[in-house]
Amino acid sequence: MSHFHAVIWIDHREARVFHFSPTEVDKLVLHPDNPTKHIHHKANSIGSGHATADKDFLHAVIHAVADAGAVLIAGPGNAKAELVKHIHEHDPKLMKLIAGVETVDHPSDAQLVAYARHYLGAADKMTPQKA
């Protein structure tokens, strides 16, 4: 995968990673070893009711975009924030790759790539590109 741009759509069950150019797309789908079910907080119980992040899963997602020049992180819930926190704590040099973090529900692959092309195309006009 040698495309400059990448987009990650992530929730607690999967991460869809796309490296793309204006005309091409490479897709990778990653799954955690133990996907969590939706957990609800119950009254008078200890804990927040949220599952903890799968560190190996998040690390695999980071590794999948480490060669990109600009990355958009998207998803419907907290997993995208957990990914950013994991990057910040475990591979802070990759923080500079993050062009944005956006809440995006459940788009099709084509919709997600079109959104990322538009989003990162606007960002490209504001940042220098590496050769």
Strand and helix layout:
Elements lengths: L4 E6 L4 E6 L4 E6 L24 H11 L4 E6 L3 H12 L7 E6 L5 H16 L7
Parallel strand pairs: 1-4, 4-5
Antiparallel strand pairs: 1-2, 2-3
Helix pairs in contact: 1-2
Characterize the overall form. Answer: globular
Please summarize the sheet with the most strands: 5 strands, mixed
Q: In the CATH scheme, what's the topology name?
A: Nucleotidyltransferase, domain 5
Computed CA radius of gyration, to the nearest angstrom = 15 Å
Describe this structure in words.
The chain has 131 residues and is an alpha/beta fold. The chain has one domain: eRF1 domain 2 (Nucleotidyltransferase, domain 5, 2-Layer Sandwich). It is 30% helix and 23% strand. It is built from 3 helices and 5 strands. Strands 3-2-1-4-5 form a 5-stranded mixed β-sheet, with helices on both faces. α1 crosses α2. The two termini are 16 Å apart. About 4% of the residues have low confidence.
Keywords:
single chain; five-stranded mixed sheet; alpha/beta; Nucleotidyltransferase, domain 5; 23% strand; 131 residues; 5 strands; globular
In short:
The protein has 131 residues and is of the alpha/beta class. Helices cover 30% and strands 23% of the residues. The protein contains three helices and five strands; from the N terminus they run βββαβαβα.
